Each structure stands twice: as structure tokens, then as C-alpha cells.
Amino acid sequence: MIAQVETCTHSRTRPASVLNQERVSVVVGILQFELLIHDPSSLKDKRRVVRSVKDRLHRDHQVSVAEVAMHDRLDRAILGLALVGHEGRRVGQVLDQILEKLRALHDAELGDITREVLQGVERVEQSDRNLTDEDADALAAELLSSFEDDGEQSS
């Protein structure tokens, strides 16, 4: 399932040299999976397996992983995983690699899996690569003015 995420942008007038624009978007890969833990004799055994899986996935793929359900069951754990990138193809490849690793686990078996990739709305990114000193000063003054205006409104 692919969902569009709405964005709220705040636009201001920029110096002409800042108008080099690039299209950017965010892609979020979400994986929820069940681990069937082999022969746990205690909660300590379950925690060892879950922690090992979480640490390995985080280290190898730079993803966020958490146990999200089945906390009271010794033989099962449900984990959620999130990955953020800018290319849908790459996010999908990483999720595929993760699933291969999970299928090859020795201490647990992979149960139910839910996989979702969310595509954010493309937006225009302002590039500051060709910013002159004059433009940088104007931009700094504009930002400072914005912060001062925000401070007055919150007082």
C-alpha cells in the first residue's frame, strides 16, 4: 500500500541566485514481523534473541527496530522496523535483504510479515550552492527577522 503524505511548506521570497531547484521526496519503509522463538526457557532467553536481532539489523542496515507487541509471551515477539530513504527502489532492496536475514535466523523462525512503503509528496528544495555574500546576508537577515517575529508572537 502506498500512501501520499501531505506536507506543509512555508515559502518566502528568495534571492534570484538561490532559485536552483531540485526535486526531493522522502520514502519510508515499514516492516512488522513476528518472531517464533525456539525453546525459550525464560524471559531472559526471549530478550537475548530479540536483542540480537534488533542489534544486528540496526548495525547492518541502519534501521530503527523495536519490539512492539507480544511482550508477555516467551515464544513470540512482534517487532517493528522503519527505514527512511530518498529512493523507493533502494528502500525496497534493503527491506528484501532484511527479510532474507530474518528467514535465515537460527534461534527463531519468521512468522507473519507486514511490509509497507510510504512515498512522501515531492517538494522543491532550495539550493544554496551559488549563494553570493550579498544573498547570504539577505537570507540571514530574513531568518533573523523570522525568529524575532516568532519570539514576539509567543510572548
Key descriptive features of the protein:
disordered N terminus; alpha+beta; five-stranded mixed β-sheet; Alpha-Beta Plaits; 155 residues; two-stranded antiparallel sheet
Explain what this protein looks like in three dimensions:
The protein is an alpha+beta fold. The chain contains three helices and seven strands; from the N terminus they run E-E-E-H-E-E-H-E-E-H. The protein has a domain at 22-124: Alpha-Beta Plaits (2-Layer Sandwich), CATH 3.30.70.1120. It has helices at 43-61, 88-103, 133-154; strands spanning 4-5, 20-24, 27-37, 64-69, 76-85, 108-120, 123-127. Strands 1-6-3-5-4 form a five-stranded mixed sheet, with helices on one face. The longest helix is centred in the C-terminal third of the chain and has 22 residues, at 133-154. The two termini are 44 Å apart.
Describe this structure in a few short sentences.
The protein has three helices and seven strands. The chain is an alpha+beta fold and 155 residues long.
SSE diagram, text form:
Blueprint: E1 4-5, E2 20-24, E3 27-37, H1 43-61, E4 64-69, E5 76-85, H2 88-103, E6 108-120, E7 123-127, H3 133-154
Parallel strand pairs: 1-6
Antiparallel strand pairs: 2-7, 3-5, 3-6, 4-5
Largest sheet: 5 strands, mixed
Taken in chain order, the helices and strands follow as EEEHEEHEEH
State which percent range the strand residues make up. Answer: 25-35%
Alpha-beta classification: alpha+beta
Count helical runs: 3
Q: Write out the strand line-up for the largest beta sheet, numbering strands in chain order.
A: 1-6-3-5-4
CATH topology of one domain: Alpha-Beta Plaits
Helix content: 25-40%
Which class of one domain in CATH terms? Alpha Beta
Q: Any low-confidence stretches, pLDDT <50, length ≥5?
A: 1-21
Radius of gyration: 23 Å
Number of strands: 7
